[in-house]
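Input record, target 12 of the design panel.
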């Protein structure tokens, strides 16, 4: 007669008391370790992604302002009678739909000399509201121009005291500034 083992997969009573048995049993260890490390792991991955997006957005804004400021520097904006709205549209063309163009703030000023170029606060640090007065003065040939562009980038991740926001409305102020002398057009 063939005898069936009905205790398959179950330790015998005597096996429970053998030294070292519980040390070798690793069932569920991976799950427990993942449970302990999952939150910090995903927080770090999220922080890396958030930081990368902020740097990417900053570079995209900077590149768009550089390209648009060149229109003023070379006299193309003046010859086409650009307004503040058209200049903002030129900047927005280089933003690859990453930004809400209605929220991009632009100030173009003609200044007397390079030494007199100053930047003033553009947002109230207590509530995050805009204090920037948008103007557009693209000057004439050989005039000195200061181009400023600002955008409040929304911050999504605020975990473990990791927060890239520098304004109280949970946004980060991105800025790009160009100071140059127009070509003699």
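The sequence produced for target 12 reads:
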């Amino acid at each position: 007669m063939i005898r069936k083992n009905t205790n398959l997969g179950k330790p015998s009573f005597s096996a429970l008391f053998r030294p070292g048995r519980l040390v070798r049993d690793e069932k569920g260890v991976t799950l427990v370790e993942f449970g302990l490390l999952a939150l910090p792991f995903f927080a770090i991955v999220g922080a890396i992604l958030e930081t990368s997006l902020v740097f990417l957005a900053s570079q995209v804004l900077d590149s768009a302002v550089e390209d648009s400021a060149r229109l003023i520097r070379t006299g193309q904006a003046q010859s086409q009678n650009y307004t503040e709205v058209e200049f903002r549209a030129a900047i927005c063309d280089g933003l690859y739909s990453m930004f809400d163009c209605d929220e991009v703030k632009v100030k173009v000023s003609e200044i007397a000399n390079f030494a007199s170029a100053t930047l003033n606060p553009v947002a109230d640090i207590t509530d995050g509201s805009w204090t920037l007065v948008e103007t557009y003065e693209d000057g004439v040939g050989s005039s000195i121009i200061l181009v400023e562009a600002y955008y409040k980038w929304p911050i999504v991740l605020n975990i473990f005291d990791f927060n890239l926001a520098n304004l109280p409305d949970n946004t980060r102020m991105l800025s790009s500034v160009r100071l140059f002398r127009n070509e003699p057009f």
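The chain has five helices and three strands.
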